[in-house]
Design a protein that fits this description.
Structural class: alpha/beta
Strand order of the largest sheet: 3-2-1-4-5
Number of strands: 5
Distance between the termini: 38 Å
CATH superfamily: Ribonuclease H-like superfamily/Ribonuclease H
CATH class: Alpha Beta
Shape: globular
Strand content: 25-35%
Largest sheet: 5 strands, mixed
CATH architecture: 2-Layer Sandwich
Radius of gyration: 14 Å
Number of domains: 1
Number of helices: 4
């Protein structure tokens, strides 16, 4: 099983935004990804992290069982089918995600407390800091 921790954040909502993700296989980090995405909402950044992770995984771990950990309760609940998706931009992300999911054995999304997502959160803040400095 591959475990993925994703996070997105914005300084202001909307504001300068970035994403981060960390991929683990057998408890070892196999990939870290992050990037600045411009002015966006926090939710846009959260979903960007998931899509970017899935895109990398589709090139490197097809057919695997994936378990995503998200500190966004909204994203975890929407992707698990518990909450409806009303925002058109988020629907576009979910369409991308649903298009990538069949490439894997299984995909699940679990909400975790922010304190358990520190590594991905650090990547988000490093991406923001390197682009615009600390604000």
């Amino acid at each position: 099983m591959i475990e993925i921790f994703c996070d997105g954040g914005s300084r202001g909502n909307p504001g300068h935004a970035a994403f981060g993700f960390v991929v683990y296989s057998d408890k070892a980090v196999v990939k870290k990804g992050s990037g600045y995405i411009g002015i966006a909402t926090n939710n846009f950044a959260e979903y960007t992290a998931i899509v970017k992770a899935l895109e990398w995984l589709s090139q490197n771990h097809k057919g695997e069982e994936l378990k995503f950990y998200l500190d966004s309760q909204l994203a975890a609940s929407q992707l698990s089918g518990l909450y409806k998706i009303k925002d058109a931009k988020i629907r576009d992300f979910v369409f991308q995600i649903r298009t990538l999911e069949p490439e894997f054995k299984s995909v699940s999304y679990t909400h975790i407390p922010r304190a358990q997502n520190k590594f991905a959160d650090q990547l988000v803040n490093l991406a923001l800091d390197s682009r615009y400095g600390t604000e």
